[in-house]
Write a structure and sequence with these properties.
Distance between the termini: 41 Å
Largest sheet: 8 strands, mixed, barrel
Number of helices: 19
CATH topology of the largest domain: Hypothetical protein af1432
Number of strands: 10
Oligomer: single chain
Order of helices and strands: EEEHHEHEHEHEEEHEHHHHHHHHHHHHH
Shape: elongated
Radius of gyration: 23 Å
Strand content: 5-15%
Helix content: 40-55%
Mean pLDDT: 76
Number of domains: 2
Low-confidence stretches: 1-30, 55-62, 169-191
Length: 439
């Protein structure tokens, strides 16, 4: 992997409302942080599982000094609020960090401490849970399976987490997986209720199975990989929106033609004008027409806002996290494009369109012929490992916490890892702010 270079002092200003403050750059060593959403059965975001990594080591090892320093460093460098927007942050811990109270550098009100259910827990570990809960921390017991030796920890846990692939042999049985307790909520000996979290839920079938088995929270890529309708055609009302995307990606905007396309969809017109008139854009007077919006905002800003409005329409009825992920991917790919001489505008579209199948329930191969893109970008959307897809592929591996593959891709494409991580942090902030402005 190439030697990381210091991140630049600032990045180019965003097209949606002024400069983006430059986040702290990793100093000397490369720190990874990725987040994986945790959703409830209705697709609502419950929190994020944060995955930290320093060089080739995971964050928490048995070395108490290293664990303490890494927790503190990553908290200072990244900040949980930046990655979770006030929702619970699930953070993996070792026995040493819990017993020594080192995790108390984290904000209790928004932190869920993940405890691995490995060997029989020590009395010191069990005893350490009480003051941590009194301080406001919540506890999640990882890799849980019902057993007497884990009961003392289960009695103190707020979440019981199970990796779904560990239940695979039970899928052949006629009855779904059962705990020795009521399925919807598990009552511990202390009388408090514990939520059940299924991890590695990576398909719609996984989700249906986990829900039938009584889990109420779900972590995995299933919401980005729904059951696709292979024989379904692109709805007729989407073709003009694809046509609008094509015009938005042209060199110069045809004001009259763009306005006519937008006005063909009342919902899109309303959403676009609401966004333009929001405090996010900070215009000094109200905009009442699409033509005025383009003139007031300028072409580049209008392109981004119109693209966001179209994607919001596409994502109707789907979990909002899909739209937020597409925005994050778009911003990351655009910011990082200069690290490998790619076109930022094309990379933005590649990122934001990468989750179209999850939004529309249609395979990408059925969508790409209608998309206004160069053949290499279409091929990248379909999964071809071409140079245009290098940044998106790196980000997908980062989202899954697949650090070895991230290293391999960075080396193969000569990517500056320090800059990529900096762009990712900027994209997290931008996507959060942008999505909030549409709410």
């Amino acid at each position: 992997m190439p030697t990381p270079q210091p991140s630049p002092p600032s990045l180019a200003s965003t097209d949606l409302g002024g400069p983006v403050p430059a986040g702290p750059a990793p100093a000397g060593e490369v720190h990874y942080v990725a987040r994986q959403p945790i959703l409830d059965a209705r697709g609502r975001l419950h929190g994020y599982d944060l995955l930290f990594r320093e060089f080739r080591e995971t964050v928490f090892r048995g070395d108490r000094e290293l664990a303490s320093r890494t927790i503190l460093d990553d908290t200072v460098l990244f900040g949980l609020e930046r990655y979770t927007n006030g929702l619970p942050a699930f953070v993996e811990c070792t026995e040493e960090t819990l017993i020594e109270g080192l995790v108390q550098v984290l904000p209790p009100s928004m932190t869920v401490l993940r405890i691995s259910a490995g060997e029989e827990p020590s009395a010191e570990l069990v005893a350490s849970c009480l003051p941590l809960k009194a301080a406001g921390f919540r506890l999640a017991l990882d890799n849980y399976s019902p057993s007497r030796r884990l009961q003392p920890l289960a009695d103190r846990a707020d979440y019981l987490c199970v990796e779904l692939d560990r239940l695979d042999p039970l899928r052949q049985q006629t009855q779904p997986f059962q705990y020795n307790s009521p399925m919807q909520r598990f009552k511990t000996g202390s009388g408090s209720s514990v939520a059940r979290l299924a991890r590695k839920v990576d398909s719609q079938a996984d989700f249906e199975y986990a829900r039938a088995a009584g889990f109420t929270l779900f972590q995995g890529s299933y919401f980005c990989q729904p059951q696709l309708l292979k024989n379904r055609k692109v709805p007729a009302n989407r073709f003009f929106q694809f046509e609008l995307l094509r015009h938005l990606n042209d060199g110069l905007l045809d004001l009259r033609k763009i306005a006519g396309l937008v006005l063909r969809d009342a919902a899109l017109t309303y959403r676009l004008l609401r966004l333009v008139n929001s405090p996010f854009c900070a215009l000094r007077q109200e905009v009442r027409s699409i033509e005025s919006a383009i003139l007031f905002l300028g072409e580049d800003t209008f392109r981004r806002i119109a693209t966001l409005s179209i994607l919001s329409e596409f994502n109707g009825g789907q979990p909002p996290e899909i739209l937020q992920m597409s925005l994050l991917r778009a911003r990351f790919c655009a910011l990082a494009a200069d690290t490998c001489t790619l076109n930022p505008a094309e990379q933005y579209l590649l990122g934001i369109l990468s989750l179209l199948p999850a939004m529309l329930g249609i395979p990408m191969e059925a969508l790409t012929p209608s998309l206004p893109l160069r053949p290499p970008i279409r091929e990248a959307l379909e999964g071809s490992p071409n140079p245009e897809r290098s940044l998106l592929t790196w980000l997908e591996c980062h989202e899954r916490g697949n650090w070895p593959q991230c290293d391999c891709l960075a080396a193969n494409h000569e990517l500056n890892v320090g800059r990529l991580l900096h762009c990712y942090a900027e994209a997290v902030d931008w996507a959060k702010t942008t999505l909030h402005a549409t709410g």
